[in-house]
Design goal:
By secondary structure, this protein is α+β, with helices and mostly antiparallel strands. It is built from seven helices and 14 strands.
């Protein structure tokens, strides 16, 4: 990578100053983390897969009128994005019980929920990203009631889009999380989908077999994570012509 100013480095991505004002370059790393970074590994090629998959989903959302920070993919690991002010919340949309919700409520994983349920967690690794009610969000000034109404509407549109796309390739969208950013156009503020959408941020199960095709493969030691991500990319048709081999098949590095 050419030398450029580093803006922020997270667990899975690095942000660099972009070529134009109001832009950033988002670089996808090969690092995998789970349980608030207590479990870590480097998985060669994971960043390539997530870059291509996030491009696919963000482009699809832009095309149906759901605004995102994505502008274009620059290469196999980087994409050009809009600079946004991130609201310090993870927006979690659940269609089926799984993970922490299943544990909290004593539900069997895979139980279909009566309707999509939206939860918010406060983005703070030191606190373990705790769940927070809307009262906290408004009281602490992280977002207004109007912001929350708009966030819920955005999240449900993303859910409709992702659910349909995944169902079309035989995958059940269990849940996912997104982040929302603020941008200003003249004096007008808009909320847009930011960060990434990939198997790192979604739970994806094969409809027929229930096989997990997301980061739970890494969390629960269920097999090769990149085989799962590659299968998602293959079904969605986002792999290059040579298939997984053309990307350099990712392998786990201990």
């Amino acid at each position: 990578m050419a030398r450029r100013k580093l803006v922020y480095e997270g667990k899975a991505k690095i942000l660099y100053e972009g070529p134009e004002p109001g832009t950033l370059v988002q670089y996808f790393k090969d690092d995998a983390t789970a349980f608030n970074a207590e479990k870590k590994a480097t998985i060669e090629g994971k960043g390539v897969l997530n870059n291509r998959l996030s491009e696919f989903f963000m482009t699809g959302l832009n095309n149906i009128g759901v605004p995102t920070h994505f502008l274009k993919r620059l290469n196999m690991r980087e994409q050009l994005i809009r600079s946004v002010e991130i609201i310090p919340l993870e927006v979690i949309v659940r269609n089926f019980a799984a993970g922490s919700m299943a544990k909290r409520l004593g539900l069997e994983e895979g139980t279909q929920l009566p309707r999509p349920i939206i939860e918010f967690s406060y983005k703070d690794d030191a606190l373990g990203d705790p769940l927070v009610p809307e009262e906290y969000i408004i009281a602490f000034g992280w977002a207004t009631q109007q912001d929350l109404d708009d966030i819920v509407a955005l999240a449900l549109r993303v859910n409709d889009y992702l659910s349909g796309v995944m169902y079309g390739v035989g995958i059940k969208l269990i849940d996912f999380k997104i982040e929302i950013g603020r941008i200003w156009e003249n004096d007008f503020m808009r909320l847009i989908v930011a960060d990434e959408i990939s198997p790192d941020s979604c739970r994806l199960w094969d409809i027929e077999t229930g096989q997990k095709l997301d980061k739970d493969v890494f969390r629960r030691d269920l097999g090769n994570l990149t085989d799962a991500y590659t299968e998602v990319a293959r079904r969605l048709g986002v792999l290059p012509n040579g298939g997984p081999a053309a990307m350099g098949k990712p392998t786990l590095i201990n």
